[in-house]
Write a structure and sequence with these properties.
Keywords: Membrane, Transmembrane, Transmembrane helix, Transport. The chain has 321 residues and is an all-alpha fold. It has helices at residues 2-20, 33-58, 62-71, 73-83, 88-109, 115-135, 141-149, 157-176, 178-186, 188-193, 198-220, 225-239, 243-266, 275-320. Helices cover 81% and strands 0% of the residues.
Length: 321
C-alpha cells in the first residue's frame, strides 16, 4: 500500500513538474525532481498551516503549538534511529497523537493557573526523552542537526507521500470542526454553554497541530516548524479585520513565503543559503512589513481623525461667534 501510494505520488509530482516547467518563477524549481518535491511540499504546507495557524492564533494556542513541536521530537528520533528516515513520519505521528492527548488532558484537568506549567512539563518531558534516545545510539550529532534544522532538499518520494497524507489528515480535522473552533475562540464560555464538546474540539485542534508538525519536521526541522505554524496566521491577524480575511492573508503568506524562500535559496549566491531558513525568513519579513504597515496606517488615520475633529471644533466656534 505504501509503495503503491509512493509511486502514485511520484508519478503525479513528475507529471506536474513537466506541466509547469515553462512557467516563469516556477521554472527554476522544476529543473530537477529534488527541487520540485520540496516546492510541492511547501505549497501544501503553506495551505494547511494557514488554516491551522489561523485557529492557533485565534485560540491563542501558540505555546501549545510550541509544546507539540518539541513533544513530537522523540517519535521522530525513534523512527530515524530504528528504521531510517522512512519511518520518521509514522513514528512521529504516533508520538504526536500521544502528545496531543497528553496536552489536552493536562489543559482540562489542571488548575487554571497551573495549565501552562503542565504544558511546559509535557514539552520538556517529551523532548528530553527524544534526546536520551538519540544520544543512547552513540555520536549522532549529524543526525541531531538534521532533525533540529531539517534538510528540505532531501525530501524523497516516500517522505513526500507520507507528509501529504498527514497534511490531508490535518486539513480534514480543521475543516470538519472549523465553525466550532472559531466559536470557542471568540466565546469559550458561550460555546461550552451551547453544548459544544470543548474537550473533544481541543483534542482535534491539538491533533491537527501535531499532524502539521510531523509533516513539516523532516523538511524544515523541529526548531523552524513553529514558524510555519504561527507566522502566516499572525500576519493575517495583523492585516485582516475578519476571520475569512485572516485565512486569505495567511494563505498568501504561507504559499508565497514557501515559493519565494525556496526560490531565493536556489538562486546563485556567494555562499550556500539554507532553504528552510530562507522560507521562514521570508515569512518573518512579511510579518514585520505587515506590522510596520499597520502602524503607519493607524498613525495616518489617527492624525486624519484628529484633524477632522479640530476642524469641526473650529467650525463650531466660528458659528457661535
Amino acid at each position: 500500500m505504501s509503495d503503491t501510494l509512493t509511486r502514485l505520488v511520484a508519478a503525479a509530482v513528475e507529471a506536474l513538474r513537466e506541466a509547469v516547467s515553462g512557467i516563469p518563477g516556477i521554472a527554476p524549481l522544476a529543473t530537477a525532481p529534488f527541487l520540485f518535491r520540496p516546492f510541492v511540499l511547501l505549497i501544501v504546507l503553506g495551505f494547511v498551516c494557514a488554516l491551522v495557524g489561523t485557529l492557533v492564533n485565534l485560540r491563542r494556542a501558540e505555546f501549545h503549538a510550541e509544546a507539540l513541536v518539541h513533544a513530537v521530537f522523540p517519535g521522530i528520533v525513534v523512527g530515524a534511529v530504528t528504521a531510517g528516515t522512512g519511518m520518521i513520519v509514522p513514528a512521529g505521528a504516533v508520538a504526536g497523537a500521544l502528545a496531543a492527548a497528553a496536552l489536552t488532558w493536562v489543559d482540562h484537568h489542571s488548575r487554571r493557573d497551573a495549565s501552562e506549567a503542565g504544558t511546559a512539563v509535557v514539552l520538556t518531558g517529551f523532548f528530553s526523552v527524544g534526546m536520551v534516545v538519540l544520544l543512547a545510539n552513540g555520536d549522532m550529532s549529524g543526525q541531531l542537526e538534521a532533525l533540529m534544522f531539517g534538510r528540505l532538499l532531501e525530501v524523497t518520494d516516500l517522505r513526500l507521500a507520507q507528509a501529504l497524507v498527514v497534511s490531508v489528515l490535518a486539513l480534514l480535522l480543521v475543516l470538519l470542526t472549523w465553525k466550532e473552533q472559531v466559536a470557542i475562540a471568540f466565546d469559550p464560555v458561550g460555546a461550552r454553554a451551547s453544548g459544544l464538546r470543548v474537550l473533544a474540539l481541543d483534542l482535534v485542534l491539538n491533533a491537527a497541530v501535531a499532524a502539521v508538525v510531523v509533516a513539516a519536521a523532516t523538511a524544515v526541522g523541529t526548531l523552524l516548524v513553529i514558524g510555519l505554524l504561527t507566522l502566516p496566521g499572525t500576519t493575517g491577524r495583523v492585516l485582516a479585520r475578519s476571520v475569512p480575511g485572516m485565512v486569505v492573508t495567511a494563505l498568501v503568506v504561507g504559499v508565497a513565503g514557501g515559493w519565494l524562500g525556496l526560490l531565493l535559496a536556489v538562486s546563485p549566491s556567494p555562499r550556500p543559503v539554507s532553504p528552510q531558513a530562507a522560507v521562514i525568513m521570508v515569512m518573518a519579513l512579511a510579518l514585520v512589513v505587515a506590522v510596520g504597515g499597520a502602524r503607519v496606517t493607524g498613525a495616518l488615520r489617527s492624525r486624519q481623525s484628529t484633524g477632522l475633529t479640530r476642524g469641526a471644533v473650529a467650525g463650531g466656534a466660528r458659528e457661535v461667534e
